[in-house]
Amino acid sequence: MARKTIFQKLHDTEACHAVCIAQYPLGFKDAFIVMMRTDVNKLNLYGFEEDEENHTLMTRDLNDVEYAEFKRREKLYQKTMHSDVGRVYELKSNGFRAWYKSKKSRTRRKKAV
Question: Could you count the other beta carbons within 10 Å of the beta carbon of residue 84?
Answer without folding.
Answer: 6
